Amino acid sequence: MNPSTRISDYIRRGSSRPLKRHYARLKIISFLSGLLLTQLFAVAQPADKGPFFLSYPCLSPDGAAVVFCFEGDLWKADASGGQAVRLTAMPGYETSPRFSPDGKWIAFTGRQNGNADIYIIPTAGGEIHQLTYGSYNEQVSSWSWDSRYIYLTSDQMGQQSGFKVSVEGGTPIRVFGDYFFQYDHNLFEHPTSGEIFFNDTWESSNQLNRKHYKGPFNPDIQSYDPKAHKYKRYTDYPGKDGPDQLPYLHKKCHCECGRRQSSL
After folding, report:
1. How do residues 29-71 score in pLDDT, each as one tens digit?
2. Distance (Å, rounded) from C-alpha 137 to C-alpha 111?
3. Which H or E run includes 108?
4. DSSP 234
5. How far is Cα 233 from Cα 187, in angstroms, rounded to an integer?
6. What is the sign, positive or negative, of the torsion defined by CA atoms of 70, 74, 76, 80?
7. Domain of residue 193, residue span
8. How far is CA 246 from the centre of its chain?
9. Tens-place pLDDT, residues 148-204
10. How far is CA 76 from the centre of its chain?
11. Rg (Cα) of the chain, in Å, rounded?
């Protein structure tokens, strides 16, 4: 006989004691089951879970420190581990930190005014300097090797374009002028040749983390030398290639494009 039939019999007979005992047993079983599940989950979880959603990590030039974004602010810690120190506490989100090659500054994108602007802060922390102003959005890409300029992507022309701005501030300069590439972004400077590497498709701009895309908007690694007026395309792999994949080793650049490696 199932429990529902038994309960109906208790009610029909006018006896409430068996019914109360039945519900008491159900409550005890439910309580013990919940207690067991709680203990099982407690055993499964590590003692120190640590923080989650750390993003935008960037190593210092000497590899000794790392700066990253957590809860909308920038933090710095030793690369070997240890206590992290908060560098910013501005309204809005701070993202995309980049150490200057001389190790003195950290450039980042801040949104305390609603739109994204470019800021710098001393590596050790301290006073924050705003470098760009306006109602458009600007994103830090990289530094010049002399640590005098910051390359950035801005939509002030109505679509994304590559600019650079001095660490002293001033009006950002469009790197490739007004009549070259129409969607250039992710600018990285070669340490010796003067070439500026870049991408120029919406896929590398808005869908950088999308996996396995292969189509007409595949981003390739390209470069342009503003002084020599020379353009070069380095990759034609049917997948995603970007200048942010270029590791600079000493005075040489090497790019890994798909399964093929090119020496730059």
Report:
1. 555 555 554 554 444 445 556 677 888 999 999 999 999 999 9
2. 9
3. strand 105-113
4. -
5. 14
6. positive
7. 175-264
8. 17
9. 999 999 988 777 889 999 999 999 999 987 666 778 888 999 998 889 999 887 767
10. 15
11. 29
Is beta strand 173-174 parallel, antiparallel or unpaired with respect to 185-189?
unpaired
Q: Where are the alpha helices (DSSP H) in 82-177?
A: none
Tokens of 57: 């990590």
Per the structure, the count of domains in the chain is 2
Q: What's the pTM?
A: 0.72
**How many C-beta atoms surround the C-beta of residue 179 within 10 A?**
6
How many contiguous H segments (helices) and E segments (strands) does the chain have?
3, 19
In a domain, 212, yes or no: yes
Phi and psi torsions of 96, nearest 5°: 55, 50
- Angstrom distances, CA of residue 55 to CA of 67, 73, 78, 88, 146: 9, 10, 16, 15, 27
94 in any annotated domain: no
In a domain, 56, yes or no: no
Type of residue found at 79: A
Q: Which residue, 97, 60, 98, is CA-closest to 79?
A: 60
Three-class DSSP category at 50? coil
Residue 202 belongs to some domain of the structure: yes
The structure tokens listed for 27 are 């409550």
Contacts of 237 (CB under 8 A, 6+ apart): 218, 220, 257, 258, 259, 260
Strand locations in 114-154, DSSP E? 115-122, 129-130, 138-143, 149-154
Six token digits for residue 22: 């039945």
- β-bridge mates for residue 255, sequence order: 262
Tokens 């957590």 sit on residue? 70
